[in-house]
Write a structure and sequence with these properties.
Radius of gyration: 14 Å
Shape: globular
Order of helices and strands: EHEHEEHEHEHH
């Protein structure tokens, strides 16, 4: 089974998980890169990024080469912004039109709004069968079980 991990990362959490997932599943990686990156900290990230995410708006992405027919499953990773997928993931979902190969999602949150984000993604990705909610590593009191959750998620993706 050929797998692709598609993700956006602003603070590095989603990138680290995507790298682990891809290595463990021998999957290809596609990092979504906005043409104009949103700030990693501060007002712009929370206001502009949060507003775009809340309304499901995308952000223009740098060109990427994706041949959907090459993959049996796609695993999607996103940070959670304002209880929603980030703008880069919103744009990706609009660009690909066919979400049928997206079977799994992993999310990263600082606020614990992963489940609200997952519910929004389930409405946009009808074939979604598994997900894992992870926490920003800057908050070790919540992120302490990230490794075991990620390991379990990978095993479920391997079985698919």
């Amino acid at each position: 089974m050929k797998t692709l991990v598609v993700y956006y990362s602003n603070a590095g959490n989603t990138d680290a998980a995507a790298q682990i997932i891809a290595k463990e599943l021998s999957a290809d990686l596609l990092r979504l890169i906005p043409e104009k990156e949103i700030a990693k900290e501060g007002f712009q990230r929370f206001f502009l990024g949060g507003m775009k995410s809340t309304f499901g708006w995308g952000t223009k992405l740098k060109k990427y080469d994706l041949k959907m027919t090459e993959y049996d499953q796609i695993i999607l990773g996103t940070p959670v912004w304002a209880s929603s997928p980030c703008p880069a993931v919103n744009r990706f979902l609009k660009e690909i039109h066919d979400t049928s190969k997206i079977t799994s999602v992993f999310t990263f949150s600082t606020s614990g709004d992963n489940e609200k984000c997952i519910k929004k993604l389930e409405r946009r990705i009808p074939g979604l069968i598994r997900h894992v909610s992870l926490y920003d590593r800057k908050f070790p009191e919540h992120a302490g079980d990230n490794d075991s959750k990620l390991k379990g998620f990978i095993e479920k993706c391997r079985i698919a």
